[in-house]
Structures are given as C-alpha cells and as structure tokens.
TrEMBL record:
Pfam families found in the cross-reference section: KH_9, Tudor_FRX1
GO terms, molecular function: mRNA 3'-UTR binding; translation regulator activity
Gene Ontology BP, a term: animal organ development
InterPro entries linked: FMR1, FMRP_KH0, Tudor_FRM1
Residue ranges occupied by any Synaptic functional regulator FMRP KH0 domain in the UniProt entry: 155-237
Signal sequence, start to end: none
Region (Disordered): 266-298
UniProt biased composition (Basic and acidic residues): 285-298
Composition skew (Polar residues), residue ranges: 266-284
Name assigned to this protein: Uncharacterized protein
GO cellular component: cytoplasmic stress granule; neuron projection; nucleus; presynapse
Domain Agenet-like, first and last residues per copy: 25-80
Amino acid sequence: KKEERTKKRQGKFHNRIGRFLMEDLLVEVLLDDGHYYEAILTDVTDTEIVVTFENMLTVMEGRKNLETKNYPFAKARLPPLKDTTGAAPSYAEGQEIEVDCTLFGYYRATIKEILIDGEFFSVQHFNPKYPIVTCYEIVPVDRIRVPNPNPPLTKDDFVKFHFNVPMNLRDIAKKYRIHKDFQVLIGAGICRFEPGSGVLVCISRADWSKKAAYELIECHFNTLREKAEGFKKLEEKAIQLRSKLIEEALYKRRIEGTGEEYIHVSTSEQSTSGLGEQEISSQLKRTEAEPMLVESEH
C-alpha cells in the first residue's frame, strides 16, 4: 500500500508538472472571423507554427493523429501573463476590452455600460466580416479581460533542438511517457521521439532548456539502456515461466492418461501465454513508474 501511495503521488506530481509545461506552449491564433482562439503549439518551423485546437488533456495523454494546422507567426501571439497579485482589474465605460466567447476564443469589444456594481457589462463588438453590423451583449465580469498586449510571435520565442537516438534504443524510445522525466528536468513543453528520422525532438520557451538537455542527454540514454535491459530480462523470465507451465501441463495430462495431449498443450499455451503477458505488463508498469535519477557533473 505504501508503494501504491508513492506511485500515485509521483503520478500526480508528473501530471502537474506536465500541465505546467504544456501551458508554456499555449498560444492564441487569429482566425478568419477576427477572433483569437486558444491553441496548443505542437511544432515550429522557420516561418510557421503548427498548432492543435484539441484540449490540453488530449495533448497531455499523448494521443496520436491530432488534427493540426499551420499558421504564420504573424497570426499568433502568446497569452497574457496571469495576474498573481490577486487584485481585481477596474473597468470604465468606453474602455476597449476582450471578451471570452464560448469556443475558447476572444473578441475585441468596448464597454458601453457597467451594470449591477460591476458584476455585468453591456459591451459592443463588431463583426469583421460584416463591419456595418453592430452587436451588443451583456456579459459577466469573469468573461472580460484587458486587451492582450503581446506582439505577434517570432521564431525566437521558442527553442527547438533534437538528438539522434542510438539504434539500439529506438524501440524503447517509442514507449509512452518514457521521456517524461527528461522533459521535466530540461523544462521542455514537448519532448517526443520521431521514429521516421530517429531523433528526439524538444521544444521549449526557456533559453536554458537546450543547455540543460545537452548536459543530461547521455544520462537519459543510460537510463533508457537500463530500462531496455530490464524489459529484456522480464521477457526472458516470462518465456521461461511459460515453458515451465507448459511442461507441467504436459506431465499432468500424461499422468492422467486422457489421450488429449495435443489439444491440452494448445490450450495451456494460450492460458500460460496470457499469464506471462500479464506479468510482463505489471512489471513494465512498475519499471516505467520509477523516477529517473539523473546526476550531472555540472
């Protein structure tokens, strides 16, 4: 029970850190309707960003085949910094604001009237597609914010680098969350293995991430080697256990003299194979749940 509680705490810690790192990759993208929509950056090129409008939980789960789209840097910006002071912002009539719409986006508007002691606001906004149409809406205070002051993105806002993964580690490098500890240590929002090119791609907004990654990458590869050896030994033990169970089943049938050796061998092979796979699965989960210890001389 103590080990289970420890694993749960480690899992919650990694999820919190993972969410913190993912928030580092949140951007706001300007779409054709003139509104900015929240998106999560998945890749960066020299001229564009690649984003997904899927929710953060879906991205954190590492789900494949996410729907992504490319946008030029000029059409994206970083979200505004969160206010850590706890002070409520003050608004005035005629002030320009941004209103949170229901689809994780923001549109520009102007406050026309303050209602119910500042709990609600009557706002006026314009539709870029139909400039002659003026829209009015009453919104609560928690749906408005001061206009985002951040300028359009540039390629310098993100740091992207990669490492060639040794051939003998590429199979284990494909495993889900196998690079999570390394990602946390270097403060990267993205740390994924690309099987086609055989490289480990990292993307971060922190300048120090690249230096930290170069210092720790060999330690990470050593950890992958140790885990690969552990997986190999578990598989060998499972094969030995399977063979032993098959031999015991054969011997038992011969003693009983049922005359159905072949049929029962086939059945026992299937059942023992299932037992072996269950044992491997549980052992692998325990191995992957162990925290990666990295020592650096720097």
